[in-house]
Amino acid sequence: MTRKLWGIYQVTTCWAFTVLFCTLGSLFLLLTLRAFSYSLASRMLRFYGRGMCWLSRIEIVVEGEEHLETAAPCVIAMNHTSVIDIFVISSYMPARLVVVGKKEMLLVPFVGQIYWLMRFITVDRKNSVRAVASMKRANRLIADNKLRVLVAPEGTRTKDGSLGPFKKGAFFTAMELGCPIVSMVMAGSYAIHPSGQVSTTPGRVRIRVLPPMDSSTFNRTNLQDKADELRQQMSDALDDMYASDPKISRYPRHHDQTESET
To answer: Which domains does the chain have, with CATH numbers?
Structure first.
C-alpha cells in the first residue's frame, strides 16, 4: 500500500471508528443518566484507544505500568507532543480516571458530547480567574469521588516535539488534594504524527510510567520549582528511552534527513 493510500485508509477508518464509538457510548451514558460515568469511562477509553492504535498500526511498549495503580486520588501527568497521544494514553487508562482539557473540546463533533457525558473536566484557558475557579471545583469533585485525574502540565500540545515548560496547575491540584503525581512519559508519538500531518505513520510508541512524586512538601512558594523538577525527570526519561530503543525516533524521518544534510 502506498503512503497516500495508507493515509486515506487510516484517516477514514479511524474517523468511522470514532463516530461509531462516540455515538454508541454517548447513547449508553445518556440512557443510564451518566450514573456509571466514573466507573465505565476508563474501560470505554481503553477499548477506544487500543482500537485506534490497532487501526493506525501503532505498537505500544509500556514499562512501569504498576505505578498506575497508585491509590486514588492522584494526578497523572503526561507529556503532549502529538494528536495521537490521547489514543496511546487511553490504551492504558487506569480505573476511575477523569481528564482535564480545554473547554473547546466540547465543540468537537461527537467527541465533545461523550467528553461531557463521561463527566470530564473542562478549563477556560483564556480566562485565568475562571480557570482557577473551575479547577477548585474539580479538586473537590476528585477528592469526593476518589478519582485519578489526567493532565498535561505543558498546557497544550507542543509544535516541534520538544518538552515544553510546565505550568503549575497540576501541582496545585496535588497540593490541594495531598496526593502524589504519577508521570506517563511518551516517546515516539511526535515522529509518527507531527503537528500538521494528516495521517499517522505506522510505528512504535514507548510509555514509561515513573514512580509517584510525593506532594507532601508542596507549598505555594515552591510549586514552580516542583514543576521544573518533574519536568527534568521526564526529560531525562525521554532521553534514555530514545537512546535505548532504536525503533522509536524523536523526530520524523524527513526531519532527521534535513538535519543530517545541514
So the answer is: 3-261 (3.40.1130)
